[in-house]
Amino acid sequence: MEVVWTRQWAIFFGLLMIIPFFCSRSFAENPDRNNLGEDRYDEPNHGVQLHVHDHQVVMDNGMVQLTLAKPEGSVTRIKYKGVDNLLSNRYRENSRGYWDCVWQNNGQWVFLGTSFEVIYHNESQVEVSFKRTWDPSSDDSGPPLSVDKRFIMLNGSSGFYAYAIYERLEGWNGTSLWQTRLAFKLREDLFHYMAISDTRQRVMPTADDRRRGEVLSYREAVLLKNPANPDLKGEVDDKYQYACDSKDNKVHGWISQKSGVGFWLITPSDEFRISGPLKQELTSHVGPVSLSTFTSSHYVGKSGEEIFQDGEAWKKVFGPIFIYVNSVSDKKKALSLWGDAKQQMLKEVESWPYSFPHSRDFPKSHERGSVTGRLLVLDRYINQEPTPASLAYVGLSVPGEAGSWQDEKKGYQFWTQADKDGHFFIKAVRPGTYNLFAWVPGVIGDYKYDAIITIKPGHEIKLRQLVFEPPRDGPTLWEIGIPDRTAAEFFIPDADPKFVNKILIKHDKFRQYGLWNRYEEIYPDQDLVYTVGESDYRKDWFFAHVNRHGTDGKFRRTTWQIVFDLPIVEMAANYKFRLVLAGANFAELQVRLNDPNGREALLSTNLIGRENVIARHGSHGRLWSFTANMPGYLFVKGRNTIYLTQTRTSNSFQGVLYDYIRLEGPPR
What we know:
The protein has 668 residues and is mostly beta strands. It has five helices and 46 strands. Helix content is 9%, strand content 38%. A hairpin with a 3-residue loop joins strand 5 and strand 6. The longest helix has 28 residues.
């Protein structure tokens, strides 16, 4: 009896082992079962397959099938969950998923490979390369850059990874690079819902809706006149309304409520981005389009342009980023895909630096180093002892002056946010030499640790307590705003009802179109006057110092006033005026004391800024800091007035955004 029982179990377990074999044969013999609910692309143990054909390369892990043009390396097809292609067939194959740049005289160039190579292939992973090698002796009319585009697919992963290695060799011609990115153009019949953040997500207009609309002050801003979705009629669409700070730009993308599928770009690290954590970049916009922008001059102007001199060598790895796709079986719950995408983003961030890229130019975790420490702030006019630099932003960047990181674009940067006690940990830093920089929300100025920091593989540098002494000459007599590198705390008016984007009514109001025109409506007869001790900067200080429209079609300069009382004046002493701007665009601000028509200004910024931050709905661009000595004899006992005049008047978008203003008394 015992023998019979054993034989029965042996037969049972034998059948269990045979059944999967026949099931796998069934799927292999029916590769076109692509209807939702019975898609073969759900097999967790499918392994990664690579098929190399004459003109295309196909990577397939049983969940996602990726097709790439060969040897160009453009993404032509993403097959997922019964959808034959998530990308739009309205565009030619090299314009669906591609790497490009804007260089020299604003010319766009799509990087197309001329050679193909399999870097690594087994059942767990495939990595392929599409390389465009620049030859100075050829008649190549593109930028003098070699670009190695890499794509990686892992087993059991719902998506694929992409990165690129840009390189210049010694002796090559000089050039400039204004922008480089990876772009995807999705199917318009599927993807209508876009998500950038918890508060910026919505059903979007279509490209046809924009074509039928009214172009406003510039071509990116369109008033929707006759959209296919009547709920969108009368709204403004502008891709710059969906820009995002690098520190917050970890995941964005689109949801198809029709198919229950989501498409997301996940950026787990900012190390390859430029200009620090507050650099703003475009994300997703009407098309539907999703962008992973690595460098651009948006919101920083000329300082965001990478300029290479003749003969200058350079190499940089952009990425990897993760192109993630997800789905729900109940299409009514499609919007829940945003939450899932955020969870996946956290997993990718936790996995950085990735262990699987097969490029020697991408150091793995054990090949990197780290820095720990604590930052304190000592402002003796506020506290006699150092206090924690609560929630400070602390980073490593190419050596330079304090604050130079915001103009740095060729190297790598590594940033973290300290805890409430000022403790920080900067991990996964590439080997190299750096300066340590920091800035503290609520504290004026930029910090720089004087010593050069050399990162070595596997080493952790433990710094002593660092003390930041912010700029200060004397006690604060008055201040306007918060030194947080943005103008978001100032008065931001409601949008003109004719030019509203509904998702910006409660959040990110500064991103509404046309706010520059509201200044004249709020101050029709006289420019802004702010009285210290009576006015409230949250209600009475307009967020952007802009021009007025003249009746002759020309623009007029505007002069703002800061009115304040000094009960005592030290005539022989110097007072210090500190002015910090959160952005500027072809502007010149002049500062005078008690005489608006004085021959010479006590402070002139001269012509600054090419950030276009006002037109592009930003609360900040590049930070600009200025100081001026104000001799005591220029003040009067009692009421005084500081005049701020923006003198450049060619258009509506010239002006400045203020961050913080402070008047200090004589040193004590």
